[in-house]
Automatic annotation (TrEMBL):
Organism placement in taxonomy: Eukaryota, Metazoa, Spiralia, Lophotrochozoa, Mollusca
Species for this entry: Plakobranchus ocellatus
GO BP, one annotated term: snRNA processing
Gene Ontology terms, MF aspect: nucleic acid binding
Keyword Lipoprotein (UniProt): no
GO cellular component: integrator complex
Classification via PANTHER family: INTEGRATOR COMPLEX SUBUNIT 10
Subcellular location: Nucleus
Family, as annotated: Belongs to the Integrator subunit 10 family.
UniProt cross-references to InterPro entries, sorted A to Z: Int_cplx_su10, RNaseH_sf
Protein's name according to its UniProt entry: Integrator complex subunit 10
Chain residue ranges for the region called Disordered: 204-225
Length: 393
C-alpha cells in the first residue's frame, strides 16, 4: 500500500504522521511512547465496548469488482434503532480503520506499530483480531475476514460466537458461497429457537432498519451495479434482532439464484413461504416471483398448502390459473395433479376433475383459520432444512 501520510483523505480524518512516534491523533500530539501506547490502548478498548459487543454484517452479495482488484469503496452502514450513539460508534470505527491503514502503509510504520503492539496487554491483542475481522468486512476483504473469524470462533461461546458466525456467514454470502453461508445461518436459527424460555418471535417487525425487505425493488440492483451498493448492518446480538436478520439473509440468498440457470421451482416456493413472515413488506419480491412463474408457464411444489396461508398469495395463485393470469400449469396439490389426472376416467375428462379439486383446495385454504406465521415458519425451517440447503448446491 503506498504511503498515505499526506493524502487529502487522511488529512480530513485528523491523522498526521511526521516522524517516528510524532503522531497527531484527533488533534492531540504525543511525544512520549508510553503516553501514546496508553492513549491508543484506551481508545481501542472503548471502541471494543461500544462496537464489538454488537455486530456488523452484510446482507447483499459482493458487487463485481475489476479482476484482481479488491473493492475498497466504503459501504453504507445501517445501524439498528436499538443502538445508542450509533453515529459516534461508526465515526470511531471509521477513524480506527484509517489509523490502522496508515500504520500499515509502509514497512517502517508497520515495524513501529508492531513494536507498540508488543507492549500491549494480551486482551488487547485479542481485541485487535476482532477489529481486523470487522475492518476486513468493512473493506470488502472477505477471504481475510473469514481467516480471522475462524480463528476467533474456535475459542468463542455464547453471544460472541453468535456474532462471529453471523459475520462468517455474511462473508460467504458476499463471496456468493451460498451453501456455506446458509448452513451457518440455519445453525444459528436452530440454536436460538431451541433455547429454553419464552419462544422467540420469528415474524415480528425487525427492531432496526431492514436491509432487504424495506426496498425490495432497488437493493439487488444497486448491489450488482457497483461498489455504491455495498451495504452493512450494525445491530445487537439479541434473538429479537438476529432472527429477523437470519430470515432476511435466507431470502437474499435465495433471491440471488433467480437470475441464474440454477433457478428451480423449489427455490421460488421457499421464497414465497418466507415472504409471509414480512408480509406485506415483501410484496414486491413476491410479484417478481409471480412474473417468473408466468414466464415459465408451469410451477410444481406439492407442499404448497402445507406452508402457504397468506390470503393475498393464495388469491394470486388462483389468478394464475385463469386465462388472464396466463393459464399457468400449477401442480401444487398435496397429491400431484399428474397422479390425480391418472385417477380420472376418460369420459369425465382428464383435466376437469383436477381443476375442480384445485379450486376447492384454494377455497378451503382461504376460508381456513390459519396458524400463526411463527408456527408455519418454524415448521418449514425444521422440516425443509435439507431441501433449503439443496437449493444452494
Amino acid at each position: 500500500m503506498p504511503h498515505r501520510a499526506h493524502s487529502p483523505d487522511l488529512a480530513l480524518s485528523g491523522f498526521h504522521l511526521f516522524g517516528p512516534l510524532n503522531l497527531h491523533l484527533g488533534g492531540k500530539k504525543f511525544e512520549d511512547e508510553d503516553e501514546l501506547i496508553g492513549e491508543v490502548r484506551d481508545w481501542f478498548s472503548k471502541l471494543n465496548i461500544n462496537f464489538f459487543t454488537q455486530g456488523i454484517y452484510s446482507l447483499l452479495p459482493r458487487p463485481r469488482a475489476k479482476k484482481g482488484k479488491l473493492d475498497k469503496a466504503a459501504p453504507v452502514i445501517e445501524p439498528s434503532l436499538t443502538i445508542g450513539a450509533a453515529d459516534k460508534i461508526l465515526q470511531s470505527f471509521e477513524m480506527a480503520v484509517k489509523c490502522f491503514e496508515l500504520l500499515n502503509s509502509t514497512e517502517e510504520l508497520k515495524y513501529e506499530f508492531y513494536q507498540l503492539c508488543q507492549k500491549w496487554r494480551k486482551e488487547t491483542h485479542t481485541m485487535m483480531t476482532y477489529f481486523q475481522a470487522d475492518m476486513n468486512i468493512y473493506q470488502g476483504n472477505y477471504p481475510e475476514a473469514i481467516t480471522h473469524l475462524q480463528t476467533l470462533a474456535a475459542s468463542a461461546s455464547g453471544k460472541t460466537l453468535m456474532k462471529l458466525n453471523l459475520q462468517w456467514a455474511s462473508c460467504h454470502l458476499c463471496l456468493k458461497q451460498y451453501s456455506k453461508a446458509c448452513q451457518l445461518i440455519l445453525e444459528q436459527l436452530e440454536g436460538i429457537l431451541s433455547q429454553p424460555g419464552p419462544p422467540v418471535s420469528l415474524c415480528s417487525a425487525a427492531t432496526g432498519t431492514t436491509a432487504e425487505s424495506d426496498s425490495s425493488d432497488g437493493e439487488e440492483g444497486s448491489a450488482t451495479s457497483g461498489a455504491a451498493g455495498r451495504r452493512l448492518r450494525l445491530m445487537q446480538c439479541t434473538a429479537s434482532e438476529v432472527v429477523p436478520f437470519c430470515l432476511q439473509f435466507l431470502v437474499a440468498s435465495l433471491r440471488a439464484k433467480m437470475s441464474t440457470y440454477q433457478l428451480t421451482d423449489a427455490i421460488l416456493a421457499h421464497m414465497i413461504i418466507l415472504t409471509q413472515c414480512d408480509w406485506p413488506k415483501q410484496e414486491a419480491l413476491f410479484n417478481e416471483i409471480i412474473s417468473t412463474i408466468q414466464k415459465q408457464g408451469t410451477f410444481t411444489y406439492n407442499s404448497f398448502f402445507y406452508y402457504v396461508h397468506q390470503v393475498d398469495i393464495l388469491e394470486e395463485f388462483a389468478f394464475l390459473d385463469t386465462p388472464e393470469g396466463g393459464k399457468v400449469n400449477l401442480d401444487i396439490m398435496p397429491i400431484s395433479t399428474k397422479a390425480l389426472a391418472q385417477q380420472r376416467t376418460v369420459t369425465r375428462g382428464v383435466n376437469k376433475g383436477v381443476k375442480e379439486d384445485f379450486k376447492a383446495a384454494l377455497e378451503k385454504q382461504v376460508g381456513h383459520i390459519p396458524e400463526s406465521n411463527d408456527v408455519i415458519i418454524r415448521r418449514f425451517l425444521q422440516d425443509e432444512r435439507e431441501e433449503l440447503l439443496k437449493s444452494f448446491l
